[in-house]
Amino acid sequence: MNETEIKLFGAFRKYMPSGSIRVNLPDGVTAGQVKEMVKRVLQQQVPDFSDTNLVYESALATESEILAEDSVIDNQSDLALLPPVCGG
Amino acid sequence: MGDIRVKVTREPLLLTELFGLKPDSAHGAVNSFVGTVRNLNLGRNVTKMEYDCFIPLCEKIFVDIACEAQRKWCADANILIFHRHGELNVGDASVVIIATTGHRDESYRITRYIIEEIKIRAPIWKKEYYQDGETDWVRGHALCQHRKVDHHEHDGSHSCGRQVHPHETR
């Protein structure tokens, strides 16, 4: 079990202005499971958080790639949860 | 092979400096796209915009998109992609894309391709501030894993086989 910081961006900042959240990741956890864990932490820590679709529509990523839902997270220290994007 | 320059920065994008980009002697076209902050979105008056960005991944994706454009249309195109983050006022330039190529057609195609891909692939988010005092994060396009960046390209050499020059101003 490793406590890991996950960076949050965009609309997540209105629920977590610090821009990050800490979760305990068990060995062999997948990106999809991490998203579920983030959703539960937000529901526990943010009373007005109800936008679970925001989590489901988001992608877990590292500084170098977007991860598939079934990607196994292995000693990652640079995780970020990326909501739908709108650059330009 | 053409040169690629990318940057995500809090500093204003000074167009006079950007247009100092020199085309190769074999290039007969310099094409640019500049995106600016609009004062109206979906019927609401916008007073300013805040851009959020996951910078390391964003700059890698910019390079990836530029490499794709070179492969599609012009291997020796010089391409510049600069994007702002932080707070911007109405009228400020949020993104600048410049391509220099041998002929005009590929320069138009490259700049158009890059801005369209940025909108659906780059990890950038916009928070709008409205005249009535409210704010809202713009809902955009969900990212897909199949768009992932090649993580073996972290040494400055990308799949298109050239060195790139990410700037460090953040």
What does this structure look like?
- The complex is a heterodimer of chains A (88) and B (170).
- In chain A, 23% of the residues lie in helices and 23% in strands.
- Chain A is built from two helices and four strands.
- Chain A has helices spanning 31-45, 52-56, and strands at residues 2-8, 20-25, 59-61, 79-82.
- Chain A has a four-stranded mixed β-sheet with strand order 2-1-4-3, with helices on one face.
- With 170 residues, chain B is an alpha+beta fold.
- Chain B has three helices and ten strands, in the order E-H-E-E-E-H-E-E-E-H-E-E-E.
- Chain B has helices spanning 15-18, 55-73, 104-121; strands at residues 4-9, 29-36, 40-41, 44-53, 78-84, 86-89, 93-101, 124-130, 135-137, 164-166.
- In chain B, helix 2 runs antiparallel to helix 3 (104-121).
Shape verdict of chain A: globular
**Strands in their spatial order, largest beta sheet of chain A:** 2-1-4-3
Annotation, overall tally of beta strands of chain B: 10
Biggest sheet features of chain B: 5 strands, mixed
Strand order of the largest sheet of chain B: 2-7-5-1-10
List keywords for this structure.
heterodimer, A: 88 residues, alpha+beta, 4-stranded mixed sheet, 2 helices, B: 170 residues, 5-stranded mixed sheet, 5-stranded antiparallel sheet, 3 helices
